[in-house]
Amino acid sequence: MRRYSRGEQHRVEVVLDGRSREGRCESRMLLSDFLRHVLGATGVHVGCEHGVCGACTVIVDGVAQRSCLALAVAADGRDVRTVHGLARDDVLSDLQQAFRRHHALQCGFCTPGILMSATDFLARNPAPTEQAVREMLSGHLCRCTGYTGIVAAILDVAALRRERGGTQAA
Amino acid sequence: MKDDAQARPASQGTWVGRPLERFEDEALLAGRGCYADDAPVRPGTLAAAVLRSPYAHAQISRIDAARALAMPGVRAVVTGADVEAWTSPFIVSVKQPMRHWCLAVDRVRYAGEPVAVVVAEDRYLAEDALEAIEVDYDELPPVIDPVAAAQPDASILHADVGSNVVSDRSYRYGDPDAAFAEAAHRVRIDVRYPRNSGTPIECGVVVAEHLPGGAGYDVLSNFMGPMSLAAVMSLALRIPAARLRLRAPRHAGGSFGVKQALFPMIVAMCVASRKAGAPVKWVEDRLEHLVGATSATGRVTTLEAAVGDDGRITALAWDQLDDCGAYLRAPEPATFYRMHGCLTGAYAIARLRVRNRVVLTNKTPAGLVRGFGGPQVYFALERLVQRIAVELGLDPLDVFRRNFVPSGAFPYRAPAGALLDSGDYAAVLERALASAGVDDLRARRSAARSAGRLYGIGFAAIVEPSISNMGYITAVLTPEARAKAGPKNGAIAAATVAVDLLGGVTVGVDSLPQGQGHATTIAQVVADALGLAPQDITVDVEFDSRKDGWSVAAGNYSSRFAGATAGAAHLAALRVRERLARIAAGALGCAPADVVFERGKLFARSNPGGALSFARAAGNAHWAPALLPEGEMPGLRETVFWTPDVLAAPDGHDRVNTSATYGFAFDVCALEIDRATGSVHIDRYATTHDAGRILNPALADGQVRGGFAQGLGAALMEEFVYAPDGSFRSGSFADYLVPTAMEVPEPAIAHLETPSPFTPLGAKGIGEANNMSTPVCIANAIADALGAGVDPAAIELPMTPSKILALVAATERMVSR
To answer: What is residue B404's DSSP assignment?
Structure first.
């Protein structure tokens, strides 16, 4: 087990959205702060710093989790995916496009976290019910939209992926 | 449908009115927005952390920062002594000797009040040092309940003021006493409105830099106005307004009015930068935001109506007590006065009596929260209308129909001064009943009740003011004091349209959007005026007080965008169009009035074949000034300042047209209460609006849905709770509950459009209606479900399961007796 001492800078290596990145931080630095301020992934948003609002959600080794409840040093050597990795060659993913089509965002501050949870969720649940989508979304707070467009966008993209045989599933 | 909306319209079509997808979304969806905490800062910028009072009311006998200053990375600690030396207390809109500084000086008056700021090399180090600041507090008795705070024996917050009641004004319109004396019935309701908030997911951010050579301060923040507060900040910093440069980044993570309350922290960070000798950045955390940022004004209301046998209301008497917290922070007591002109709501009631008292308590200062004043007023007024129906045994819909301002009576002057610009309230009601399927709901209610279930239907009719009169707050002063202070009025909006050297169009606006999609709507409006497509228009919503056109009313509040800012952009675009028509008329061989702008081209009405491209025509203003018609200025950039003509200062009888436009909404809610758990299940919710001309229906519906979700939260979940000792009990999102996707149903939305005669595009605000209508509509449905025996005063927001269970138990006891 690695030991970290207080006040020392530690090297943290991650695969961030498909690219090897490294940075240095104290052992107490939150993963959210590390991603934003050390690696520059400012699409990771911080809304509550106590794990309720979900804005900071990223996918670590394939599982959506709150980056404000994790330490950066605990992500050392892991695969971290953020909102920055969803679009390919400047083309928005099907999920992102569905969000635009359904007016699923206003201020957009909660959106990156929701996109990451939805990405994880749809990979596990290709044919979700509306109720299941709402239960997944209950881990996120949005104060602008009333959630209607978000639910519609996620159901829409699930249906489109099924029509296309699931080849687009992230 | 959707795809058609994105396509170029037919020649006679317009972009305004289409549900265009937003230009904002691509950057935001890709995680490439630029919010305040993402914006670049200068190397060497330091981080601030704020020490806050754990006590609601205490004297500070000692602050010692020596240990903190000795800690690694700490550069400065700012305390009350610094702010006394370098700033002045904030000005207060009632003339009272109250001293409100950006940090506590000698005394703290609410839990969460800023006491000191640590400036350090990073935020972790700054937060470490907070714990090393030694503060000795001598506790004083706190005052939490507003009614108790108004008593003569209450503990006093501000000794110089001598009372916690800092304003007490009475108003009389018509002859209300005679109406009450003659009335067949008097119906009264006593209600309280809780303290709650919009809680944007992005908290406050301030980056402040003290500039050398007396140049003042440069501030980047997500403060969103009203820019009248620039005057309050400049005066506190003892500098000319021009030396306080306020900038806002491209994107903001919501505000709902709340970020208005950032202004004292802007002043605090200016002082911190001055003391540290470096730029300082502060990012508010969620606990700070909940405990210390702001709150909707809590209110205690007694409202009484004089009523005829048929339910016709002949007079209203309001007695309102506002809990503004520990300091009367600008623009308070505006929560009262925003609504003052339209205290008779949607009803033709000629006689009115009002008493407004403002009381201070040991709580966070109150301020703007979406709906601002409306939720407080309509919770009383629409509960009263429900009670009139119950007490007189009438159908509530008949009470509405008999009291509405008649359809042909607009513009209608309400007794306290509101000039209701346009509307057809009866038509909206009928549309709402159809949208809700009210006959079906009544059948469902009968069936549920005969099975012993608790099913209720509620209604609410609200007039939604938008575009606030900058002079309304002076209604708090007596006419004599007002005359001495000089008149204030208007609601100035500004927009700039520029055409560049290749014919590209850029628009700058004063609306500081917080996520609504202003850039998209402005592009639609300007495209129509210039015969272009929205994607041809570049809209700049960043704000820089040094470079942009703006005035006192600038900012993101009072639903001013659609009516005022979009209207000003339309007028500025028309000016550019007139200039281009004059410039191109010679080449087109026609009079300027006969130049047609269509599909990116200019041509003479009589000769569509001989068209000039928009870019070519505009280019002449830049590349060939010698060819311009005589008297035509070179360059192509027009700024329009617009204010609604109808907004005058309050008159000698305290009548004031508080807003330029007044929309209308009628809501219907059907719900069922679970006897076992006290939880509420919404069976159907229909909300029907008339916000004048709708500029982008998708965005308008987005505003309705968002307001509805917040209204639902206010109705059932949200409250800032204080313990009897004044400590704060709602400091996390696990304590302050806001609705998730599991709690928010999909409302049925319908619109009628009665254009406003007073705004350039006929548009009115729509973003606050459901914050005003939904809390009381749900409360009325809960009251209906619990039955006529329920104590009306016990319907108190938020209607949590525990409150409802107690009422269910009380009704069951009554039945069994």
So the answer is: B
* B812 shares its domain with B663: yes
Mean pLDDT of chain B: 96
Choose the mutation target among B18, B25, B125, B284 for the interface with A, i.e. most A CBs under 10 Å: B25
Note whether B635 and B663 are same-domain residues. no
Do B612 and B690 belong together in one domain? Answer: no
With respect to residue B398, please indicate whether it lies within any of the assigned structural domains: no
Domain that holds residue B437: 404-466+659-816
- Domains of chain A (ranges, CATH numbers): 9-84 (3.10.20.30), 94-163 (1.10.150.120)
For A138, which of B2, B254, B741 is closest by C-beta distance?
Answer: B741
Tell me what pLDDT residue B120 has. 98
The whole-number mean pLDDT for each consecutive block of 10 residues of chain A, a chain of 170 residues, reads 86 98 97 98 98 98 98 98 96 98 98 98 98 98 98 98 70
Residue of B nearest to A150 (CA): B741
CB contact under 8 A, B740 and A141: yes
Asked if A107 and B734 come within 8 Å (Cβ–Cβ), the reply is: no
Neighbours of A135 (CB within 10 A): 15
pLDDT, residue B815, reads: 66
- Among A90, A106, A110, A114, which would you mutate to test the B interface (most chain B Cβ atoms within 10 Å of its Cβ)? A106
Predicted pLDDT at A3: 84
Confidence band for B206, pLDDT divided at 50, 70 and 90: very high
Q: Is A52 on the interface with B (CB under 8 A)?
A: yes
Euclidean distance between CA atoms A109 and A157, whole angstroms: 21
pLDDT of residue A7: 84
Name the token pair of B29: 């969806």
B151-181 pLDDT, tens digit each: 999 999 999 999 999 999 999 999 999 999 9
Decide: residue B681, CB within 10 A, 0-12 exposed, 13-18 middle, 19+ buried: exposed
ipTM of the complex, rounded to two decimals:
0.97
Q: Taking Cα atoms as reference points, which of B24, B28, B705, B702 lies closest to residue A111?
A: B28
Q: How many structural domains does chain B have? A: 2
Residues of chain A neighbouring B699 (CB-CB closer than 8 A): 103
**Torsion, CA A71, CA B253, CA B700, CA B374, rounded to 10:** 110
Q: Does A154 touch chain B (CB under 8 A)?
A: no
